[in-house]
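**User:** My hope is that you can spare some time for a protein that puzzles me. I have put the entry right below:
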Amino acid sequence: MLRKRSLAGLMAVLFFVAAGMFPPAFADHGKKGMGYGGGLHGMFFMKAHFMLIHGEQLGLSEDQMRQIKDLKVEVKKYLVSRDAEVELKAIDINAALHESPVNTQAISALIDEKYALKSAKAKYLVDAIVKLKSMLSDEQMSMLKSMWKGSKAKYGHHGR
């Protein structure tokens, strides 16, 4: 009897430990599209990808295709750099929290810097989305919108 209880207790502990490892992977509730992540960066990359795979149908020129590809690379490089800066600020904040005594003013300044970086990233992505859309003519943009809506209705999400 004691052995069964110990085994049941061990199984319960293992279950909760294992369950604790998976929620972050599913925290987006399955709403990340095509592996691009959510938020503005996901929106940018989904739109750019959709434009490129449907470039012929949209009547995109070689120059337009090249501009979209170049913008995708530029944005990806920016995001890698900016995300690294944000991560470094998080490391600095964590290190400052372990000092004795804790300097709350210094930590507050680091937090402000971290969120200023995130704010700049969001503004950059909005500009990139506007730039991406401006690469299309009015006719191409209208066609893109109808294709996008059709894709969403057909597949339940954008582009796939």
In short: The chain has a mean pLDDT of 81.
